[in-house]
Amino acid sequence: MGKRAATNVLAGAEGTGMTREAEALPHAPKLELVKSSKREKILEGMLEEVGAKGYDATSVRTVLDRTGLYRQAFYDHFDDKDGCYLAAFDAGVARAEALVAAAAASRQDWRERLRAGLGALLDHFDSEPDVGRALVVEVHAAGPRALAKRAETMKKTVDFIDLARLESEQGEAPPKIAAEGVVAGIHAVIHSRLSTGATDGFRTLLPEFMYFAVLPYFGAEMASAEMAAAHERAGLDS
Amino acid sequence: MDSLSARLPQTYEARSQRGRLREAMVRVAAAKGYEATTVEDVIEFAGVSRETFEAEFDGKEECFLEAYETVFDILITHVTSGFEAAAGDPWPERVVALLRALVEMLSVEAEIARMAMVEVTAAGEDARERYRAMLGRFTPFLEEGRGYSGQGDDLPADTARFAIGGATSMIFDEIRAGRGPELKRILPDLVFAVLMPYLGPEAAEDEMRRVAREG
Q1: What number does CATH give the domain B72-214?
Q2: Do A188 and B164 touch (CB under 8 A)?
Q3: Which residue of A has its CA nearest to B118?
Q4: Which residues of A fall within a CB distance of 8 Å from B134?
Q5: B147 against B195, higher pLDDT
Q6: Which among B128, B129, B163 has CB closest to A185?
Q7: What ipTM was predicted for this assembly?
Q8: Which residues from chain A sit within 8 angstroms of residue B166, using beta carbons?
Protein backbone atom coordinates (compact mmCIF):
# COMPACT_ATOMS: atom_id res chain seq x y z
CA MET A 1 0.00 0.00 0.00
CA GLY A 2 1.29 3.46 -0.88
CA LYS A 3 2.10 5.86 1.87
CA ARG A 4 -0.62 8.21 0.80
CA ALA A 5 -3.27 5.51 0.80
CA ALA A 6 -2.11 4.35 4.20
CA THR A 7 -2.41 7.86 5.56
CA ASN A 8 -5.92 8.12 4.21
CA VAL A 9 -6.87 4.87 5.83
CA LEU A 10 -5.55 6.08 9.14
CA ALA A 11 -7.25 9.42 8.80
CA GLY A 12 -10.51 7.66 8.06
CA ALA A 13 -9.97 5.28 10.94
CA GLU A 14 -10.71 7.78 13.64
CA GLY A 15 -13.32 6.33 15.87
CA THR A 16 -11.70 2.92 15.67
CA GLY A 17 -8.65 2.11 17.71
CA MET A 18 -9.63 4.70 20.26
CA THR A 19 -12.77 3.55 21.97
CA ARG A 20 -11.02 3.76 25.30
CA GLU A 21 -11.86 7.39 24.84
CA ALA A 22 -15.28 6.50 23.48
CA GLU A 23 -16.96 8.11 26.46
CA ALA A 24 -15.72 11.46 25.25
CA LEU A 25 -16.66 11.01 21.62
CA PRO A 26 -19.87 12.66 20.51
CA HIS A 27 -20.85 9.71 18.32
CA ALA A 28 -20.52 7.16 21.12
CA PRO A 29 -23.92 7.31 22.76
CA LYS A 30 -24.53 6.37 26.33
CA LEU A 31 -26.68 3.33 26.95
CA GLU A 32 -29.85 3.76 25.01
CA LEU A 33 -33.45 3.40 26.11
CA VAL A 34 -32.43 5.23 29.22
CA LYS A 35 -34.92 7.41 30.98
CA SER A 36 -33.14 8.11 34.21
CA SER A 37 -29.55 8.13 35.34
CA LYS A 38 -30.35 5.59 38.05
CA ARG A 39 -31.80 3.25 35.51
CA GLU A 40 -28.72 3.73 33.37
CA LYS A 41 -26.44 3.06 36.31
CA ILE A 42 -28.28 -0.15 37.10
CA LEU A 43 -28.12 -1.35 33.51
CA GLU A 44 -24.39 -0.72 33.37
CA GLY A 45 -23.92 -2.28 36.78
CA MET A 46 -25.88 -5.34 35.68
CA LEU A 47 -23.70 -5.88 32.61
CA GLU A 48 -20.50 -5.38 34.56
CA GLU A 49 -21.60 -7.63 37.37
CA VAL A 50 -22.82 -10.41 35.08
CA GLY A 51 -19.64 -10.16 33.02
CA ALA A 52 -17.40 -10.28 36.08
CA LYS A 53 -19.21 -12.89 38.20
CA GLY A 54 -21.43 -14.83 35.82
CA TYR A 55 -25.19 -14.71 35.48
CA ASP A 56 -25.95 -17.28 38.16
CA ALA A 57 -23.82 -15.60 40.79
CA THR A 58 -25.36 -12.20 40.07
CA SER A 59 -28.29 -11.03 42.18
CA VAL A 60 -30.22 -7.80 42.62
CA ARG A 61 -28.21 -7.37 45.81
CA THR A 62 -24.79 -7.66 44.13
CA VAL A 63 -25.85 -5.25 41.37
CA LEU A 64 -26.98 -2.74 43.98
CA ASP A 65 -23.73 -3.16 45.90
CA ARG A 66 -21.81 -2.41 42.75
CA THR A 67 -23.86 0.67 41.90
CA GLY A 68 -24.26 1.97 45.45
CA LEU A 69 -28.01 2.42 44.95
CA TYR A 70 -30.89 1.42 47.21
CA ARG A 71 -33.31 -1.44 46.55
CA GLN A 72 -36.12 0.96 45.78
CA ALA A 73 -34.19 2.40 42.86
CA PHE A 74 -33.97 -1.06 41.35
CA TYR A 75 -37.64 -1.91 41.83
CA ASP A 76 -38.73 1.48 40.51
CA HIS A 77 -37.40 0.37 37.15
CA PHE A 78 -37.33 -3.45 37.03
CA ASP A 79 -39.39 -6.38 38.24
CA ASP A 80 -36.49 -8.70 38.90
CA LYS A 81 -32.98 -9.73 37.90
CA ASP A 82 -34.11 -11.43 34.69
CA GLY A 83 -36.05 -8.40 33.50
CA CYS A 84 -33.17 -6.11 34.33
CA TYR A 85 -30.69 -8.29 32.44
CA LEU A 86 -32.95 -8.32 29.36
CA ALA A 87 -33.10 -4.53 29.38
CA ALA A 88 -29.36 -4.35 29.96
CA PHE A 89 -28.78 -6.73 27.05
CA ASP A 90 -30.83 -4.47 24.76
CA ALA A 91 -28.97 -1.41 25.94
CA GLY A 92 -25.58 -3.09 25.60
CA VAL A 93 -26.35 -4.30 22.08
CA ALA A 94 -27.70 -0.87 21.10
CA ARG A 95 -24.49 0.72 22.33
CA ALA A 96 -22.31 -1.74 20.40
CA GLU A 97 -24.44 -1.23 17.29
CA ALA A 98 -24.10 2.52 17.58
CA LEU A 99 -20.31 2.26 17.85
CA VAL A 100 -20.22 0.01 14.80
CA ALA A 101 -22.58 2.22 12.82
CA ALA A 102 -20.62 5.36 13.67
CA ALA A 103 -17.35 3.77 12.59
CA ALA A 104 -18.82 2.43 9.35
CA ALA A 105 -20.86 5.52 8.50
CA SER A 106 -18.42 7.30 6.23
CA ARG A 107 -17.38 4.15 4.36
CA GLN A 108 -18.51 3.29 0.88
CA ASP A 109 -18.23 -0.36 0.05
CA TRP A 110 -19.02 -3.43 2.09
CA ARG A 111 -15.45 -4.37 2.87
CA GLU A 112 -14.57 -0.92 4.16
CA ARG A 113 -17.71 -0.76 6.23
CA LEU A 114 -17.05 -4.18 7.68
CA ARG A 115 -13.41 -3.39 8.43
CA ALA A 116 -14.33 -0.18 10.26
CA GLY A 117 -17.37 -1.58 12.02
CA LEU A 118 -15.76 -4.82 13.13
CA GLY A 119 -12.70 -2.87 14.26
CA ALA A 120 -14.90 -0.67 16.44
CA LEU A 121 -16.61 -3.73 17.91
CA LEU A 122 -13.30 -5.39 18.75
CA ASP A 123 -12.06 -2.18 20.36
CA HIS A 124 -15.22 -2.12 22.42
CA PHE A 125 -14.50 -5.65 23.68
CA ASP A 126 -10.94 -4.62 24.45
CA SER A 127 -12.01 -1.65 26.52
CA GLU A 128 -14.96 -3.36 28.23
CA PRO A 129 -14.39 -7.11 28.37
CA ASP A 130 -16.88 -7.57 31.21
CA VAL A 131 -19.63 -6.03 29.13
CA GLY A 132 -18.56 -8.24 26.23
CA ARG A 133 -18.78 -11.33 28.41
CA ALA A 134 -22.19 -10.31 29.73
CA LEU A 135 -23.52 -9.93 26.18
CA VAL A 136 -21.78 -12.78 24.38
CA VAL A 137 -21.09 -15.48 26.96
CA GLU A 138 -23.49 -15.13 29.89
CA VAL A 139 -26.54 -14.62 27.68
CA HIS A 140 -26.64 -18.41 27.44
CA ALA A 141 -27.31 -18.70 31.16
CA ALA A 142 -30.09 -16.10 31.17
CA GLY A 143 -32.99 -18.19 29.90
CA PRO A 144 -35.07 -18.52 26.73
CA ARG A 145 -36.06 -14.87 26.39
CA ALA A 146 -32.43 -13.82 26.47
CA LEU A 147 -31.59 -16.51 23.91
CA ALA A 148 -34.33 -15.17 21.65
CA LYS A 149 -32.79 -11.70 21.86
CA ARG A 150 -29.39 -13.17 21.08
CA ALA A 151 -30.84 -14.93 18.03
CA GLU A 152 -32.31 -11.62 16.80
CA THR A 153 -28.95 -9.91 17.13
CA MET A 154 -27.22 -12.72 15.27
CA LYS A 155 -29.83 -12.52 12.53
CA LYS A 156 -29.29 -8.80 12.06
CA THR A 157 -25.55 -9.39 11.82
CA VAL A 158 -26.07 -12.16 9.29
CA ASP A 159 -28.21 -9.83 7.18
CA PHE A 160 -25.49 -7.21 7.18
CA ILE A 161 -22.80 -9.70 6.23
CA ASP A 162 -24.91 -11.02 3.40
CA LEU A 163 -25.06 -7.57 1.81
CA ALA A 164 -21.66 -8.56 0.39
CA ARG A 165 -23.67 -10.60 -2.08
CA LEU A 166 -24.65 -7.37 -3.85
CA GLU A 167 -21.00 -6.60 -4.51
CA SER A 168 -19.68 -10.03 -5.42
CA GLU A 169 -19.20 -10.95 -9.08
CA GLN A 170 -22.23 -12.04 -11.05
CA GLY A 171 -22.81 -15.74 -10.51
CA GLU A 172 -20.05 -15.92 -7.91
CA ALA A 173 -22.21 -15.37 -4.84
CA PRO A 174 -21.97 -18.23 -2.32
CA PRO A 175 -24.91 -20.25 -1.01
CA LYS A 176 -27.23 -18.46 1.36
CA ILE A 177 -25.79 -20.29 4.35
CA ALA A 178 -22.41 -18.56 3.91
CA ALA A 179 -23.29 -15.50 5.99
CA GLU A 180 -24.47 -17.59 8.90
CA GLY A 181 -21.23 -19.55 8.84
CA VAL A 182 -19.20 -16.32 8.86
CA VAL A 183 -21.10 -14.77 11.75
CA ALA A 184 -21.20 -17.96 13.81
CA GLY A 185 -17.54 -18.71 13.18
CA ILE A 186 -16.34 -15.23 14.14
CA HIS A 187 -18.69 -15.29 17.10
CA ALA A 188 -17.16 -18.60 18.24
CA VAL A 189 -13.65 -17.16 18.24
CA ILE A 190 -14.77 -14.07 20.19
CA HIS A 191 -16.82 -16.20 22.58
CA SER A 192 -13.86 -18.43 23.26
CA ARG A 193 -11.52 -15.50 23.97
CA LEU A 194 -14.04 -13.75 26.18
CA SER A 195 -14.79 -16.82 28.22
CA THR A 196 -11.19 -17.89 28.74
CA GLY A 197 -10.44 -14.37 29.92
CA ALA A 198 -7.83 -14.06 27.18
CA THR A 199 -9.23 -10.65 26.52
CA ASP A 200 -6.12 -8.75 25.53
CA GLY A 201 -6.04 -7.58 22.01
CA PHE A 202 -9.32 -8.42 20.33
CA ARG A 203 -8.20 -5.84 17.82
CA THR A 204 -5.40 -8.17 16.71
CA LEU A 205 -8.08 -10.58 15.46
CA LEU A 206 -9.30 -8.13 12.81
CA PRO A 207 -7.07 -9.42 9.97
CA GLU A 208 -8.21 -13.03 10.30
CA PHE A 209 -11.84 -12.03 10.75
CA MET A 210 -11.62 -10.02 7.55
CA TYR A 211 -10.17 -13.07 5.83
CA PHE A 212 -13.04 -15.27 6.99
CA ALA A 213 -15.73 -12.77 6.00
CA VAL A 214 -14.32 -11.81 2.61
CA LEU A 215 -13.48 -15.37 1.56
CA PRO A 216 -16.94 -16.73 0.72
CA TYR A 217 -18.00 -13.68 -1.28
CA PHE A 218 -14.82 -12.63 -3.04
CA GLY A 219 -12.56 -15.68 -3.05
CA ALA A 220 -9.23 -16.63 -1.51
CA GLU A 221 -7.09 -14.13 -3.37
CA MET A 222 -9.01 -11.11 -2.22
CA ALA A 223 -9.40 -12.53 1.28
CA SER A 224 -5.63 -12.95 1.57
CA ALA A 225 -5.05 -9.44 0.27
CA GLU A 226 -7.53 -8.08 2.78
CA MET A 227 -5.83 -9.95 5.61
CA ALA A 228 -2.40 -8.73 4.57
CA ALA A 229 -3.64 -5.15 4.31
CA ALA A 230 -5.20 -5.37 7.76
CA HIS A 231 -1.93 -6.65 9.20
CA GLU A 232 -0.10 -3.81 7.54
CA ARG A 233 -2.51 -1.25 8.94
CA ALA A 234 -2.20 -2.80 12.40
CA GLY A 235 1.57 -2.39 12.12
CA LEU A 236 1.18 1.25 11.20
CA ASP A 237 -1.22 1.83 14.06
CA SER A 238 1.08 0.49 16.72
CA MET B 1 -27.57 -47.49 14.44
CA ASP B 2 -27.64 -48.25 18.13
CA SER B 3 -29.23 -45.60 20.23
CA LEU B 4 -26.94 -43.61 22.42
CA SER B 5 -28.42 -45.00 25.60
CA ALA B 6 -27.50 -48.47 24.37
CA ARG B 7 -23.95 -47.18 24.13
CA LEU B 8 -23.75 -45.74 27.59
CA PRO B 9 -21.39 -48.01 29.47
CA GLN B 10 -23.33 -51.17 30.13
CA THR B 11 -20.85 -52.95 32.32
CA TYR B 12 -21.03 -52.76 36.05
CA GLU B 13 -20.63 -49.02 35.94
CA ALA B 14 -23.92 -48.30 34.21
CA ARG B 15 -25.69 -50.45 36.72
CA SER B 16 -23.91 -48.59 39.48
CA GLN B 17 -25.70 -45.82 41.28
CA ARG B 18 -23.30 -43.27 39.87
CA GLY B 19 -23.97 -44.39 36.33
CA ARG B 20 -27.71 -44.30 36.86
CA LEU B 21 -27.52 -40.82 38.28
CA ARG B 22 -25.42 -39.71 35.35
CA GLU B 23 -27.88 -41.03 32.83
CA ALA B 24 -30.80 -39.57 34.78
CA MET B 25 -29.06 -36.19 34.66
CA VAL B 26 -28.70 -36.45 30.88
CA ARG B 27 -32.39 -37.20 30.47
CA VAL B 28 -33.70 -34.62 32.89
CA ALA B 29 -31.39 -31.77 31.85
CA ALA B 30 -32.22 -32.41 28.20
CA ALA B 31 -35.94 -32.35 28.88
CA LYS B 32 -36.18 -29.47 31.36
CA GLY B 33 -33.10 -27.43 30.70
CA TYR B 34 -30.13 -27.20 33.03
CA GLU B 35 -31.42 -24.21 34.99
CA ALA B 36 -34.73 -25.83 35.86
CA THR B 37 -33.19 -29.20 36.72
CA THR B 38 -32.99 -30.03 40.41
CA VAL B 39 -31.22 -32.79 42.31
CA GLU B 40 -34.70 -33.89 43.35
CA ASP B 41 -35.66 -34.49 39.69
CA VAL B 42 -32.51 -36.48 39.08
CA ILE B 43 -32.81 -38.80 42.07
CA GLU B 44 -36.46 -39.37 41.32
CA PHE B 45 -35.68 -40.29 37.71
CA ALA B 46 -32.83 -42.57 38.79
CA GLY B 47 -34.86 -44.09 41.61
CA VAL B 48 -32.17 -43.57 44.22
CA SER B 49 -32.13 -41.76 47.53
CA ARG B 50 -30.79 -38.30 48.20
CA GLU B 51 -28.15 -39.81 50.49
CA THR B 52 -26.91 -41.90 47.59
CA PHE B 53 -26.71 -38.83 45.37
CA GLU B 54 -24.82 -36.91 48.01
CA ALA B 55 -22.43 -39.78 48.54
CA GLU B 56 -21.59 -39.76 44.82
CA PHE B 57 -21.65 -36.07 43.85
CA ASP B 58 -21.05 -32.69 45.48
CA GLY B 59 -24.08 -31.31 43.71
CA LYS B 60 -25.99 -30.82 40.52
CA GLU B 61 -23.11 -29.23 38.66
CA GLU B 62 -20.62 -32.01 39.32
CA CYS B 63 -23.14 -34.61 38.25
CA PHE B 64 -23.90 -32.63 35.10
CA LEU B 65 -20.24 -32.24 34.18
CA GLU B 66 -19.59 -35.94 34.52
CA ALA B 67 -22.71 -36.85 32.60
CA TYR B 68 -21.71 -34.39 29.93
CA GLU B 69 -18.27 -35.92 29.52
CA THR B 70 -19.70 -39.40 29.22
CA VAL B 71 -22.06 -38.29 26.49
CA PHE B 72 -19.44 -36.37 24.58
CA ASP B 73 -16.98 -39.27 24.75
CA ILE B 74 -19.54 -41.48 23.09
CA LEU B 75 -20.23 -38.82 20.50
CA ILE B 76 -16.60 -38.25 19.63
CA THR B 77 -15.91 -41.99 19.44
CA HIS B 78 -18.73 -42.40 16.97
CA VAL B 79 -17.73 -39.39 14.89
CA THR B 80 -14.08 -40.43 14.86
CA SER B 81 -15.04 -43.82 13.53
CA GLY B 82 -16.98 -42.09 10.73
CA PHE B 83 -13.85 -40.16 9.78
CA GLU B 84 -11.59 -43.19 10.04
CA ALA B 85 -13.94 -45.49 8.13
CA ALA B 86 -13.42 -43.17 5.17
CA ALA B 87 -9.61 -43.51 5.42
CA GLY B 88 -8.05 -43.35 1.98
CA ASP B 89 -10.68 -40.97 0.67
CA PRO B 90 -9.68 -37.37 0.05
CA TRP B 91 -9.89 -35.16 3.14
CA PRO B 92 -13.10 -33.32 2.10
CA GLU B 93 -14.93 -36.62 1.82
CA ARG B 94 -13.67 -37.77 5.19
CA VAL B 95 -14.98 -34.53 6.69
CA VAL B 96 -18.33 -35.22 5.07
CA ALA B 97 -18.28 -38.71 6.63
CA LEU B 98 -17.50 -37.16 10.02
CA LEU B 99 -20.34 -34.65 9.76
CA ARG B 100 -22.71 -37.34 8.57
CA ALA B 101 -21.88 -39.48 11.59
CA LEU B 102 -22.36 -36.46 13.84
CA VAL B 103 -25.81 -35.50 12.59
CA GLU B 104 -26.93 -39.13 12.53
CA MET B 105 -26.11 -39.62 16.15
CA LEU B 106 -27.46 -36.25 17.27
CA SER B 107 -30.73 -36.75 15.42
CA VAL B 108 -31.33 -40.24 16.80
CA GLU B 109 -30.84 -38.99 20.34
CA ALA B 110 -32.34 -35.53 20.13
CA GLU B 111 -32.65 -35.14 23.88
CA ILE B 112 -29.06 -36.02 24.45
CA ALA B 113 -28.05 -33.70 21.63
CA ARG B 114 -29.87 -30.95 23.44
CA MET B 115 -27.95 -31.64 26.61
CA ALA B 116 -24.55 -31.92 24.93
CA MET B 117 -24.85 -29.01 22.51
CA VAL B 118 -27.31 -26.56 24.09
CA GLU B 119 -27.73 -26.94 27.84
CA VAL B 120 -24.00 -27.16 28.37
CA THR B 121 -23.64 -23.53 27.35
CA ALA B 122 -25.99 -22.53 30.19
CA ALA B 123 -24.32 -24.60 32.89
CA GLY B 124 -21.65 -22.25 34.13
CA GLU B 125 -17.99 -21.60 33.52
CA ASP B 126 -16.68 -25.12 34.24
CA ALA B 127 -19.16 -26.65 31.85
CA ARG B 128 -18.31 -24.14 29.15
CA GLU B 129 -14.65 -24.79 29.59
CA ARG B 130 -15.25 -28.49 29.17
CA TYR B 131 -17.45 -27.82 26.15
CA ARG B 132 -14.61 -25.86 24.56
CA ALA B 133 -12.15 -28.63 25.31
CA MET B 134 -14.54 -31.20 23.84
CA LEU B 135 -15.08 -29.21 20.65
CA GLY B 136 -11.32 -28.83 20.45
CA ARG B 137 -11.12 -32.58 19.96
CA PHE B 138 -12.52 -32.05 16.46
CA THR B 139 -9.59 -29.78 15.57
CA PRO B 140 -7.09 -32.45 14.42
CA PHE B 141 -9.59 -33.79 11.87
CA LEU B 142 -9.94 -30.34 10.39
CA GLU B 143 -6.37 -29.14 10.52
CA GLU B 144 -5.43 -31.72 7.94
CA GLY B 145 -7.38 -29.44 5.61
CA ARG B 146 -4.52 -26.95 5.67
CA GLY B 147 -2.73 -29.24 3.25
CA TYR B 148 -5.70 -29.03 0.90
CA SER B 149 -5.95 -25.28 1.11
CA GLY B 150 -4.16 -23.12 -1.40
CA GLN B 151 -3.27 -20.85 1.53
CA GLY B 152 -1.42 -23.47 3.60
CA ASP B 153 0.40 -21.82 6.46
CA ASP B 154 -1.12 -18.45 5.66
CA LEU B 155 -4.50 -19.66 6.84
CA PRO B 156 -5.50 -17.84 10.02
CA ALA B 157 -4.60 -19.55 13.29
CA ASP B 158 -8.24 -19.76 14.35
CA THR B 159 -9.46 -21.46 11.18
CA ALA B 160 -10.51 -24.70 12.91
CA ARG B 161 -12.30 -22.81 15.66
CA PHE B 162 -14.06 -20.68 13.07
CA ALA B 163 -15.16 -23.76 11.11
CA ILE B 164 -16.30 -25.68 14.19
CA GLY B 165 -18.03 -22.58 15.55
CA GLY B 166 -20.01 -22.14 12.36
CA ALA B 167 -21.17 -25.74 12.34
CA THR B 168 -21.99 -25.99 16.05
CA SER B 169 -23.98 -22.77 15.93
CA MET B 170 -26.13 -24.15 13.10
CA ILE B 171 -26.67 -27.34 15.08
CA PHE B 172 -27.45 -25.32 18.22
CA ASP B 173 -30.11 -23.29 16.38
CA GLU B 174 -31.75 -26.39 14.91
CA ILE B 175 -31.91 -28.20 18.22
CA ARG B 176 -33.26 -25.13 20.01
CA ALA B 177 -35.94 -24.78 17.35
CA GLY B 178 -37.02 -28.35 18.06
CA ARG B 179 -35.66 -29.66 14.76
CA GLY B 180 -33.04 -31.92 16.32
CA PRO B 181 -34.63 -35.08 14.90
CA GLU B 182 -34.33 -33.67 11.36
CA LEU B 183 -30.77 -32.51 11.78
CA LYS B 184 -29.75 -34.47 8.68
CA ARG B 185 -31.48 -31.86 6.58
CA ILE B 186 -28.76 -29.33 7.34
CA LEU B 187 -25.88 -31.69 6.51
CA PRO B 188 -25.15 -29.85 3.22
CA ASP B 189 -25.00 -26.52 5.09
CA LEU B 190 -22.64 -27.99 7.65
CA VAL B 191 -20.44 -29.34 4.89
CA PHE B 192 -20.20 -25.89 3.34
CA ALA B 193 -19.50 -24.16 6.67
CA VAL B 194 -16.70 -26.53 7.63
CA LEU B 195 -14.99 -26.89 4.25
CA MET B 196 -15.32 -23.28 3.07
CA PRO B 197 -12.56 -21.75 5.24
CA TYR B 198 -10.12 -24.39 4.00
CA LEU B 199 -11.14 -24.96 0.38
CA GLY B 200 -12.71 -21.63 -0.53
CA PRO B 201 -16.32 -21.08 -1.55
CA GLU B 202 -16.35 -22.84 -4.93
CA ALA B 203 -14.94 -26.21 -3.92
CA ALA B 204 -17.00 -26.12 -0.71
CA GLU B 205 -20.14 -25.44 -2.68
CA ASP B 206 -19.38 -28.34 -5.03
CA GLU B 207 -19.14 -30.69 -2.04
CA MET B 208 -22.27 -29.20 -0.58
CA ARG B 209 -24.23 -29.83 -3.81
CA ARG B 210 -22.87 -33.37 -4.07
CA VAL B 211 -23.98 -34.16 -0.52
CA ALA B 212 -27.40 -32.59 -1.13
CA ARG B 213 -27.85 -34.75 -4.24
CA GLU B 214 -26.79 -37.94 -2.52
CA GLY B 215 -28.98 -37.22 0.49
Answers
A1: 1.10.357
A2: yes
A3: A140
A4: none
A5: B195
A6: B163
A7: 0.83
A8: 180-182, 184-185, 188
Q: Do B196 and A178 touch (CB under 8 A)?
A: yes
Name which of B179, A143, B20, A233 is nearest B9 in CA terms.
B20
Is residue A202 within 8 angstroms of chain B, CB to CB? no
pLDDT tens-digit series, residues B69-98: 888 888 888 888 888 898 899 999 999 999
Specify the CATH number of the domain A30-237.
1.10.357.10
Residue B11: per-residue pLDDT: 47
Q: Could A196 and B166 be called an inter-chain contact, meaning their C-beta atoms sit closer than 8 Å?
A: no
Residues of A in contact with B157 (CB under 8 A): 208
Q: Structural domain boundaries of chain A?
A: 30-237
**What DSSP letter does each residue of chain A carry, written as one string?**
--HHHHHHHHHHTTTSS-GGGGGG-TTSPPPSS--SHHHHHHHHHHHHHHHHH-TTT--HHHHHHHHT--HHHHHHH-SSHHHHHHHHHHHHHHHHHHHHHHHHTT--SHHHHHHHHHHHHHHHHHH-HHHHHHHHTGGGGS-HHHHHHHHHHHHHHHHHHGGGGGTSPTT-PPPTHHHHHHHHHHHHHHHHHHHHT--TTGGGGHHHHHHHHHHHHHHHHHHHHHHHHHHHHHHHH-
Tens digits of residue pLDDT in A87-116: 999 999 999 999 999 999 988 899 999 999
Distance from CA of A5 to the nearest CA of B (A): 25
What mean pLDDT is predicted for residues A111-123? 96
- pLDDT-derived band at A200 (thresholds 50, 70, 90) equals low
Residues of B in contact with A205 (CB under 8 A): 158
Q: Where are the domains of chain B?
A: 72-214
User: Which residues on A lie below 8 Å from B201 (Cβ)?
Assistant: 174, 178, 215-217, 219
Give the residue, A233 or A190, on which the prediction is more confident: A190
CB pairs under 8 A between A and B: 107
A162, pLDDT greater than 70: yes
pLDDT at B154: 85
pLDDT tens per residue, range A42-54 = 999 999 999 999 9
Contact B156 A191 (CB under 8 A): no
pLDDT digits (tens, 9 = 90+) for A23-67: 444 455 555 444 569 999 999 999 999 999 999 899 999 999 999
The answer to whether the CB atoms of B197 and A184 lie below 8 A apart is no
Chain B touched by A163 (CB under 8 Å): no
